[in-house]
Give the backbone structure.
Amino acid sequence: MKHPQSGPMILAVRRDEPAATDQKIKGAADRARSAGMRLAGVLQQNSMRAGKKKCDMELVDIASGAIVRISEDRGGMARGCRMDWNAVTRAAASVEDTIRRDCVDLLIINKFGKAEEDGRGMRDAIAAAIEFGVPVLLSIGPLSLPSFIEFAGDFCRIAEADDPVIDAWLTACFQHAAKTGRADVAVSGSGFKPVNPASPSRSTIVFQR
């Protein structure tokens, strides 16, 4: 499926430098919000608490501003994964609900990672966005890239964090939102019809002409 301005529906920014990429994604979210676009998605932030050796990992819901802690406090000596998968599932369900309930212009996901590779995390939210014709901006690490390409196929483009295509793609999103009357910024149909993903537990983006 093509973006309304003949670009990819999903733009994935490489996470070769995670901190810089996170800032790029956050900057895109700020720019889109300033333009009056209706957003869905999450950004990750890490925060420290007094007396704690490890940071809290949190997801910030872009639409509501709600903060969900996704790491478990298992003590300073704990080893292994600290991820609170129930919290991640709740955050993902909230994002998907926003996409299905509201008229969203753009979905922004901090990253497509291991959870999404395994069919969890924001995978179904991404599939829902494509089903509803909502463009998606996310980042992708090198280890997750093969799984992401298998998931998104021809509907995505991979870009470096400093690639000017990112700003051009965002501008096309702004222009489309303006033409539909939902953004203050000043195209046509994609020629594809979305089909619901065959497996709700491990979404694959499928479209028919």
Q: What stands out?
A: Residues 197 and 203 are 6 Å apart (CA to CA). Residues 184-209 have pLDDT under 50 and may be disordered.
